Automatic annotation (TrEMBL):
The keyword Kinase applies. Residues 216-284 form the Signal transduction histidine kinase subgroup 3 dimerisation and phosphoacceptor domain. The keyword ATP-binding applies. It comes from the Bacteria. SUPFAM superfamilies: ATPase domain of HSP90 chaperone/DNA topoisomerase II/histidine kinase. It comes from Streptomyces gardneri. PANTHER family: NITRATE/NITRITE SENSOR PROTEIN NARX-RELATED (PTHR24421), NITRATE_NITRITE SENSOR PROTEIN NARQ (PTHR24421:SF10). Keywords: ATP-binding, Kinase, Membrane, Nucleotide-binding, Phosphoprotein, Transferase, Transmembrane, Transmembrane helix, Two-component regulatory system. It catalyses: ATP + protein L-histidine = ADP + protein N-phospho-L-histidine. This is histidine kinase. Coiled coil: none annotated. One of its GO terms (molecular function) is protein dimerization activity. The chain crosses the membrane at residues 20-42, 54-75, 109-142, 162-188. Its EC number is 2.7.13.3.
Length: 413
């Protein structure tokens, strides 16, 4: 009994009833047009004074008109929003955005027609039936109503019919609630089929997810390269400065000063980059293509990596495209981070050749006496270098060659 009462009068049933009444309100303009059209041919006395046949004729004319208007782009977003709010349908089960394609538009028109058509019937019954049912149920307790013309017309002066009026009125109200609940449940089921995502919608959603994943991966690469390099460079410079101070040689104080200056420049630059990337993350935006330094900041990067890093540039870096300049900077940054992490203190040579149609980046450092400790799941630095090169149509090769570790990257300009 309790489950039946919840099904008929619970919150979900009430919201779906409201959804049907809203559909009936939306159908009123179409029904009015149908009434005027029939009245012009049948000489009907008015929109509310015609016969039942005229009223249902106007209803039949209004349905195709509603289907036509549902072909407009805003029809599906509005229908989906209302269905999610009032029909109790999970948000991810319905499509987003305007309907695209003939099938999606046809299903949207079918849904809108079903909504306003069923809503018109339920709304009409909700307006007309309750007053009649309440009056009927009140007959045994209302002598004046029994003696009225309506009571004599229905023959309610007979005792057995009089007392049957009370349960009959209550059954009418119960039947109305049951019909509204069943119709609301039917609309909720049909919403999944008619307003659900089409293959084109699923493809668009997959493309959006792929774009979001690429944006997150790009953000992760930016943070990894910037912060990882800064920590490695600061650690290397601080360690070198500490060793010089331990020796107590006053002649090497200039080296300590240079190391501290490099630490200051590296941390300041990294904090600025970190603020920019995290600002995008807080706003929920994608990482823009122009975010991050380029090859014009390469000398500062090398200077912050320490005195054992030698930079050689062949050709002019100014004409290098902005995207390639930024990605090349990140590649050099990651190469320096990799050298500092696995072979800290050894000389590193960086060569850039921009004289041809390809930008060539070569980085070398002697192999350490002990092999570096491998991470449990592998590092992401060289993998990120390869991803950056491949995205621009280039190649990246890293590994030991003739006693040195070499990173060679070639990217077309």
């Amino acid at each position: 009994m309790r489950r039946c009462a919840i099904a008929l009068f619970g919150q979900r049933a009430r919201l779906r009833w409201l959804h049907l009444i809203l559909g009936g309100a939306l159908f009123m303009p179409y029904w009015l047009v149908g009434t005027i059209a029939l009245g012009a041919f049948l000489d009907s006395p008015g929109m509310f004074g015609g016969s039942v046949a005229v009223q249902f004729g106007a209803y039949a004319i209004g349905l195709p008109l509603a289907a036509v208007t549902a072909l407009f782009p805003l029809a599906r977003p509005m229908s989906v929003a209302v269905a999610r709010a009032l029909c109790g349908i999970p948000a991810d089960r319905l499509a987003d955005g305007p309907a695209r394609g003939r099938d999606a538009k046809a299903r949207t028109a079918g849904w809108f027609t079903l909504h306003v058509g069923a809503g018109a019937l339920i709304s009409g019954a909700s307006l007309a039936l309750p007053p009649f049912a309440v009056s009927l149920a009140a007959l045994p307790l209302w002598p004046a109503l029994r003696e009225s013309e309506v009571g004599r017309y229905w023959g309610l002066d007979r005792p057995w019919m009089l007392w049957a009026a009370l349960p009959a009125g209550l059954l009418m109200l119960l039947a109305l609630a049951a019909t509204a609940a069943a119709t609301g449940a039917l609309l909720a089921r049909q919403a999944l089929r008619l307003l659900g995502p089409s293959p084109a919608d699923r493809l668009a959603a997959a493309e959006r997810r792929a774009a979001e994943a690429e944006s997150r991966n790009r953000l992760a690469r930016e943070l990894h390269d910037s912060v990882g390099h800064a920590l490695s460079a600061v650690t290397l410079q601080a360690g070198a400065a500490r060793r010089v101070l331990d020796t107590g040689d006053a002649a090497d104080l200039e080296f300590v000063r240079e190391a501290l200056t490099a630490i200051e420049e590296t941390t300041r630059r990294t904090v600025g980059e970190l603020d920019g990337v995290l600002g995008l993350l807080r706003r929920g935006e994608e990482v823009e293509e122009g975010v991050g330094p380029g090859l014009d900041a390469l000398e500062a990067l090398v200077r912050g990596a320490g005195p054992r890093v030698a930079l050689t540039v062949d050709g002019a870096l100014g004409p290098v495209p902005e995207v390639l300049s930024r990605e090349a900077y990140r590649i050099v940054q990651e190469g320096l981070t990799n050298a500092a992490r696995h072979a800290g203190g050894t000389p590193v040579t960086v060569r850039l050749d921009a004289r041809t149609e390809e930008l060539e980046i070569t980085m070398e450092n002697p192999l350490p006496e002990r092999p570096p400790v491998a991470r449990p799941h592998g590092g992401r630095g060289l993998r990120g270098v390869g991803e950056r090169a491949r995205l621009l149509g280039g190649t990246a090769v890293a590994g030991p060659v003739d006693g040195v570790w070499r990173l060679a990257v070639r990217i077309p300009r």
